[in-house]
Amino acid sequence: MSHMLQPPIVLLREGTDTSQGRAQIISNINACQSIADVVRSTLGPRGMDKLIHQANGVTITNDGATVLKLLEVVHPAAKTLVDIAKSQDNEVGDGTTSVTLLASEFLKEAKAYVEEGLHSQVIIKAYRKAQQLAIAKLKELAVNLQTKNVEEKVTMLRRCAETSLNSKLLASYKSFFSEMIVKAIEHLDEDFGLSLLGVKKVTGGSVTDSFLVDGVAFKKTFSYAGFEQQPKSFKHPKILLLNLELELKSEKENAEVRIEDPEAYQSIVDAEWNIIYEKLDKIVATGAQVILSRLAIGDLATQYFADRGLFCAGRVADEDLQRVAKATGGIVQTTVNGVTEKVLGTCGYFEEKQVGGERFNIFIDCPQSRTSTFVLRGGAEQYLDEAERSLHDAIMIVRRANKSTSVVGGGGAIEMELSRYLREYSRSISGKQQLIINSYARALETIPRSLADNAGFDSTDILNKLRHKHATGKDGRWYGVDMVSEGICDTIESFVWEPTVVKLNAIASATEAACMILSVDETVRNPQSQQAQAAPGGGRGRGMPPGMGRGRGLRAMRGRGGK
Q1: Predicted confidence (pLDDT) per residue in 96-139, tens digit
Q2: Cα(467)–Cα(59) distance, rounded to whole angstroms?
Q3: Which of 190, 211, 397, 562 could cysteine-pair with 164, CB 3.0–4.6 Å?
Q4: 461 catalytic, yes or no?
Q5: Active site includes 393?
Q6: Which residue out of 63, 89, 320, 482 is catalytically annotated?
């Protein structure tokens, strides 16, 4: 009888909520499917936009990563899908919705096996095998364009940019912007650093009024009286970059100056003026014609430079100042003492130009580093914000395509071909692996199915046609959804191309996320512990004295013979 009298063993704190076993895996899968349902309708050229209203404004977008980021998901398993969408966005720039849908569909296919009692590790093993096969086949199918000449390579990059923009807000202007994007990428250095690409937004005007500056452009900063008298353009100017304030400063509140002779006060005032005039004289002596500073340039300095035919701008954003430094070869100075010609930058042409209701400072033909700036025009701020996100995705795609130089067919073509290949492979093996790899292949079809559904087509009919075409062999491998004729078409011939790296990253990330969620069979959540950490000493109310409440409502374990 002694073994029946063992006391309960307290494991977790009071209020701890635990869920484990098969039910927990299914619960996590359901949460991930809810996330995917939110972004499913945004996929493809006919995808719908989402309007997300927050305290700080309204966002209208169909970018999967942006939608998931703004939703502020709190479910721990569902956060995994948010993370892989962010990872896809950071790594390749596009395919954020695709990777979320693939991960969700892999989990949906696995759900039936989990409910039937199949161990999740068996599913994970089969999924990883299917991933290896799919990636190997994808690399084999990729069309390598490395042997193409320069003109053909530029055309390839434009096609990739247009494919990315097809599903964005700028789809109607894809030819206009794809040319700008390719030209901007060509202007970058070999490392293709995105920090050298700037995007500036100006409300008003038409989208087609947008233009690309082969250099640096930024909005005119706040200026003092005398600015109107300064020249607004220079050819081959010398540029001085400062992190220095050029204005008379008022005394601090607690400043105290004791003098015996009233004339001594005038000498103090004169000393202040002499200090700033000495700085201005040294700047003029450098021979610089354009002076930019991260800190304020006051009215005295502005008028001083205007009288001498020089241009100045204060309070320049640090990001813009660094881009000017990289582009012109200038070095930002924190003092005007000992400034030599080596620290001055230069450019082919500088001008201040009116763009809509804003004035822009533009530096063109910068010799030190090749850089570009997009100036976007449009109606509402929300439109410009979404246009910027669309440009970012297309820029990332072109940048990746320029490095990898291999592409695959878009429009769901590559997913259908991989699905066919995995189905055929599954028939050559036996056991549980056969069923699971076949389910993995079926999950890949979610991309063409969602594309058809979002366009208002009959997805069942479209998928039947695609399966039939891909079964014919090599001639049908690049057939995908045709958004124009409500049918199917050869996506390579129709120039619907995507860089191979986008699909490689999407399949790998989606599979890893699905396997990770399937491997979690218990979730432990302790809200009281979290509240205690956030607000020591308890929240509202007086709380409980130490020692009270122990053992009541706790999760307990009895001995093996306990009842």
Answers
A1: 889 999 999 999 999 999 998 899 899 999 999 999 999 999 99
A2: 38
A3: 397
A4: no
A5: yes
A6: 63
Of 213, 234, 201, the residue nearest 312 (C-alpha): 234
3-state class of 317 per DSSP?
A: coil
Q: Check pLDDT > 90 for residue 442.
A: yes
Q: pLDDT band at residue 226, thresholds of 50, 70 and 90? A: confident
| DSSP H helical ranges for 167-314 | 174-187, 262-285, 299-307
Separation between Cα atoms, residue 544 and residue 563, nearest integer Å? 31
Classify 309 as helix, strand or coil. coil
The rounded distance, in Å, linking the Cα atoms of 196 and 423 is 46
pLDDT tens for residues 258-315? 777 777 777 777 777 888 888 889 899 888 999 999 988 888 888 889 888 899 988 8
| Residues in Cβ contact with 84 at an 8 Å cutoff, skipping those fewer than 6 apart | 99, 100, 103, 509, 510, 512, 513
Cα-based distances in Å from 167 to 44, 82, 200, 452, 486: 5, 20, 22, 13, 16
Query: Of 393, 453, 482, 490, which residue is the catalytic one?
Result: 393
pLDDT at 551 over 80: no
CA distance 482 to 521: 42
Is residue 361 within a helix (H) or strand (E), and if so which, with residue range? strand 358-364
Instruction: Please identify which of the residues 61, 66, 96, 491 carries the catalytic annotation.
Output: 96
3-state secondary structure 405-450: CEEEECCCHHHHHHHHHHHHHHCCCCCHHHHHHHHHHHHHCHHHHH
Q: Which residues contact 269 (CB under 8 A, 6 or more apart)?
A: none
Determine which one of 97, 302, 373, 405 is catalytic: 97
DSSP designation for 115: H
Q: Is 63 a catalytic residue?
A: yes
Q: Which residues pair with 349 in a beta bridge?
A: 235, 364
Mark whether 96 is an active-site residue.
yes
Nearest-angstrom CA–CA distance, 469 and 479: 7
Place of tokens 């398993």: 77
> Is-contact 491 478, C-beta < 8 A?
yes
From residue 453, give the alpha-carbon distance in Å to each of 52, 105, 108, 469: 23, 16, 18, 20
Beta bridge partners of 362: 217, 351
CB 25, CB 520: distance < 8 Å: yes
